[in-house]
Amino acid sequence: MTHTSSKSAVDRRRVLAGGAGLAALAAAPLARAADPWAAGREWRVYGGTNAAAKYSSLSQIDAANVGKLRVAWEWESPDAAIVKAHPGLAPGEFQATPIMADGVLYTSTAFCQVVAIDPATGRNLWVYDPGTWKRGKFTSKGMQHRGVAYWRDGADARVVIGTGDNRLIALDARTGRPIPSFGKDGEVDLGVVGLQRPLARDPIDLFASTSPPLICGDVIVMGQYIHDRVVAAEMPPGDVRGFDVRTGALKWTFHTVPMKGEFGWETWENGSAARNGNANIWAPMAADDELGLVYLPGSCPTNNFYGGERPGDNLFGNALICLDVKTGKRRWHYQFVHHDVWDLDLPCAPNLVDIRVGGRRIKAVAQVTKHGFTFVFDRVTGRPIWPIEERPVPQSTLAGEKLSPTQPFPTKPPPFEPQGLTEDMLIDWTPELRAEARKIMGEYNAGPLFTPFSEKLTVQRPAWAGGANWGGAAVDPETGVLYVPSTSSIAALALDEAGKRVGTGETEEIAGSVRLVTGPRGLPLIKPPYGRITAIDLNRGEILWMKPNGPGASETAPFKGLDTGWVGTTGRTGPLLTKTLLFLGEGPHDLNSRRVLRAWDKATGAVVAEIPLPGATHGPPMTYMANGKQYVVCGMGFRRSPHRLVALALPEGA
After folding, report:
1. Residue 63 C-alpha from the chain's centroid
2. I want to staple 513 with a disulfide (CB 3.0 to 4.6 A). Which of 242, 494, 563, 619 is the partner?
3. What's the rounded Cα separation, in Å, for the pair 384 and 320?
4. pTM above the 0.90 mark?
5. Looking at domain 7-419+461-490+526-649, which CATH architecture does it have?
6. Which residues contact 332 (CB under 8 A, 6 or more apart)?
């Protein structure tokens, strides 16, 4: 069945309805759910709630029975049918986490299709295809998307998506049809409306929406992905916009690259804000619905590894920004990296949680970073919970680069990843391996965190892959404990005096000559773990425990025969917290990843169970109740792999 609201939309919209399932959905009551943490039945937002806690109070699945979980249903992305009909197409990564609202699962696909799914069977109720895939690759990383948002007022229920070809689309949650009164025929053009500068060229591969919209009250808040390197004469700034959820009308725009006369303009010296871009919000966001505040994790300015064309600290790049959701006015901000040249953008939504420090209850916000820090603030005032020190850092030797003399270091909690590279971090399983690792280290510039790049390959640890990344952290609202999955990436980069690739005069995907840093005999250069989980008590600012996230490659060559213990997987994935357990997979990037969902004891980090899966998890899992049964749903699919959702549940009688 094809539905269009205008002749021009025929090739851009496709809605496939599920017959009787659609009729049942249309007839279903739309009773607003109670607080999801209290009722625990649904998962109405990408991160569970706007607090981005990735937490559910459900407890039907617990330590005593989690090992009995079995696959209840599998769902295949409708992208597969498009790929079959167009063999030259390939989706990117399946990064979506579905939401569950008013008794229905909703998800996006890598091609930006939107699907309504029966939560008990995995059967499609409707599929909406905006035709984004017809435009070709829409990010430098290919076609990928993280999810949708849901809003309801009485009988008016909507699913909202920002697409890779820059459309904000509102769909009727019952039918999958665009809402005619929203924007123009259900769409708003994000490539035009509310931007301080028009896009310099076709925004495909330059400017896109990949993370789910955030809806707080009646406002849709939209950030966007922007290409990190210079691919246009004038790169677009990362304007954040608020839209009316009912009409699609623009309510406000916040300029993450300030315009002349605005706060922060002077941090872009020589008027460089007028000709530079990025500082965008590509990651998921968070909001306090009661306070009416939205929290934006900021990215780095263009170019992500060289700042010679943008002297100064460059607000609001690399900053956590708190806005009034009704007006878009800044309440407070904090910049985690001044004048970023390490690609240390904020990669995930901050976690909102109430904690108790020194007997005082505080509404807090915690932001984990690529470089292994957890910054914690009062989310109303922006005051740091513990002191943050501006410490001197090394300075650049490149003639055109002027770095900040200091960078922020939180005094609590401790870093959840080792930072920088020193000799005591090198592998030492045998004296011979240690000597070889020391020799390899001598080939690089190496030093502490924030060591600047030069014309010689310079090591960065954690590298631009993190540390933490888009899967983010989870927090328990009952205990105030934060759980952070991270990878210990290490890479090296060399730049010429103009910030270009050494020897070619060109700026590539990553500006400069780049190398993954490896050690002797095919082993890593540094000690494990290479992927870890860290539990942090936010009430005290202390690490409770840290564990490698799985065996990783410890059971295979070249580790085989060495007494390494678990080394941890380098595959990125996201966490899920329930009343009793922490769930985490191993991620698809690591060829040694086990196809399991692992359940951990939240208090000790002990492994409770490993549940076999048909693939490696990618986007953070989620959980909900349907027909009296608790389900845990995992997304999987990496590049050309089949993209699917897999639902786990206890067998009858368990």
Report:
1. 28
2. 494
3. 12
4. yes
5. 8 Propeller (2.140)
6. 322, 381, 382
